[in-house]
Amino acid sequence: MAFLSLALAVLAAGGDGQGCRDAGATVDDVRAAVTRSLPFLEDEGMAWMETRKCASCHHVPMMLRTHREARRRGFAVDDEALAEAQAWALGQYLGHAEHMPTGQDKGFPKKGPGPGAVYLALSLDAAENSEALDALSKLAAYFAGKQEVNGSWALKVSSPPVVDGDDVATMFITLAMDRAKHEPALENARRQAVRWLQDVVPRPETQPIALRLVVAAKFDLLKVQPLVTRLLGRQNDDGGWSQIDSRPSDALATGQALYALLSAGVPADSPSIRRAIVYLLRSQRKDGSWFVKTRNPNSHDLVISYYGTGWATLGLLQSLPSK
After folding, report:
1. Which of 99, 127, 131, 254 could form a disulfide with 240 if both were Cys (CB 3.0 to 4.6 A apart)?
2. In CATH, what class is 27-318?
């Protein structure tokens, strides 16, 4: 992966005449932003676990995932807190027949996997410890058993953007299953999922396009360049991305787009990537978080802002070299 250049160029004005004219942002600026966001993600993730008694799909798994990615890039993280959160989340999920914590296992219209199990699987690192490896094996086998005949997955609930349609669910589960030990049944499930995705027209929204690009780059089974072009075409004049066309740029969509483009090999010093990074640096709050307004009437800004902060952190981390 191309590394972020030491000084990002001054950005030209956007098409509306009010584009970003920030001075160049450095690698140190990016690392400083991540250094601010990690404590916020840890504090809020642990607080959610302790006060809500819920691993959730948006807090604890995102805390685990961001901190593990940060550690790979040389950031200091609290390994004891990560171990505690992982053990607690695994205890919540793996003891249930449907891998859903008690109290969250009723009233769902669909029979597919619960979203929490999907995000938990994405947060685990099989190479880190035997508990994670065993958990991933169980979760992957569970996902394979819940796959639809057509190769897709339909989660038990729908609550965009955290739980956002069968296509997004299928891409998240495909990526999650790849983190487990590769076995014939799982390989077959993944191939069926990719075949289904090849026949589905991507929705004109940032998350489905970004995740499709990640899947395409990861498995080399879908065409990458058209997806890169399409995702770049959604970038706004302020350097960020919107979740959907009717909304302004936010950290969630921008973090996902940045993560996907860098995963697909777009150079970190390219103009579009530089503009996205500056957008995130400029919009970060003093406490290390990013504010994202919910578009779900049944959710809250607190939830989606935490999730968006996680994705902004993952996007920025992707621009840094692994240690």
Report:
1. 254
2. mainly alpha
